[in-house]
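Allow me, if you will, to draw on your knowledge of protein folds for a short while. I have a record of one protein: its chain in single-letter code and its fold written as discrete structure tokens. Could you please explain, in whatever detail you think fit, how the structure tokens follow from the sequence? The record follows directly beneath this note:
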Amino acid sequence: MSKLRGDAERWLLSFYRESEISGALFFGRLASVIRDPRLQFDLTRHFADESQHARWWSDCMDELGVRPTRVQASYQDAYLEAGGAPANVMEVLAVTLAFEKRVAGSYAAHLKVHDLAPPIRTTLARIMEDEGWHIHWVSRTLRDLEPEYGPDTVAAAIERYAAADREVYQRALAEHDHIVGTLQHFKAA
């Protein structure tokens, strides 16, 4: 028997899982082609984290007695349309920074849901431990790239993808807030 608050919560957990899988695949491919040793190290850790997060969501859903539902697209899929394809590693990191900030905010909002099922609360808390490091390493690396790309170019890329994130969020992830808001007001029978 499912311990979820309905199909909306199942969809949300499936969405999180799919986004983590997409992130793992993306960072894994990137780590395999980047030659800078420090960047490759951080990308490898990042892709391993994303993969682990997908596993934790799978485990969480299993513990709750549900299987993932099909999710048409992950959040990352809409970024290229809104912000344009990144032209270099600096722009990839600017996209990543915008995305990681959004993920941390979305997970933090979900953690505030009253009477959240313990497996969901545990999974969110575990993942949030990694999200801070993701934001930190990407921010640090973007600062380190300023001499190569120029501080204004880096700042412009960060703002471009932050604006793309806001657009994507308004278009596609308003549903996330709606679902989390619905969960806030859900009363168990």
